[in-house]
Amino acid sequence: MAKETEGGTWINVNGNEKKVHVNIYDSDPKEPHDESIHINIDYDKETFNINEKSDGEKSTTDCSCYLTSACMKHFQGVFNDSCDELMTLRWFRDKFVSKEDIEHYYITAPIIVSRVDSLEDNSKIYDYIYGHIIKPCVSAIKNGDYDFAYDRYKSSVVALEDEFAKPALKKELVKSLKLKTN
């Protein structure tokens, strides 16, 4: 059941240890409303998306993040989205990563996650991401070596994109072209 906040927004949070849904409305959800945001987290499937409705327009944003996925795989049953690694990386992102690089990451990361998840040995890949990207970046950030952290982050995005995203996109493009020629 949604509850009204001080500012007039209505919020409903429900779920369990496997799934969480957060619903935010601009007015009482029992009445017609113009705007809403629905945040869905599925810990089993390791997915996170945001559904927005504004002025009758609906949009969905897939928020798959290979850094979060790697942490989830590494910590398994004791994963916390507010773990030190992710909080440090988010702080760094918000302070030092360019808007263009952030946008690029959120475009390519879901493709990378999807491709890695489809592989039989995906836990090895996530272990590699955790050990060779997340841990060194977090350590560098905590030691104030922001240039190293940024360079490692950027080079990892490029490498993972080349390894996983580009082949997946080429495959989809070929499928699309085949459908158009038939």
Give the arrangement of secondary structure elements.
Elements: E1 3-4, E2 10-15, E3 19-25, E4 36-42, E5 47-54, E6 57-62, H1 66-75, H2 84-96, H3 99-117, H4 122-142, H5 146-181
Antiparallel strand pairs: 1-2, 2-3, 3-4, 4-5, 5-6
Helix pairs in contact: 1-4, 2-4, 3-5, 4-5
Describe the protein:
Helices cover 54% and strands 20% of the residues. The chain has 5 helices and 6 strands. A hairpin with a 4-residue loop joins strand 4 (36-42) and strand 5 (47-54). The chain is globular. It folds into 2 domains: 3-62, no CATH class; 66-181, no CATH class. The mean pLDDT is 77. Strands 1-2-3-4-5-6 form a 6-stranded antiparallel beta sheet, with no helix packed on it. With 182 residues, the chain is an alpha+beta fold.
Counting H and I runs of at least 4 residues, what is the number of helices?
Answer: 5
- Spatial sequence of strands, sheet with the most strands: 1-2-3-4-5-6
Give start-end ranges of low-pLDDT stretches: none
Strand content: 15-25%
- Gap between N and C termini: 51 Å
Sketch the topology as an H/E string, one letter per element: EEEEEEHHHHH
Question: Which value, in Å, is the CA radius of gyration?
Answer: 19 Å
Number of domains: 2
> How would you characterize the largest beta sheet?
6 strands, antiparallel
Compute the average pLDDT.
Answer: 77
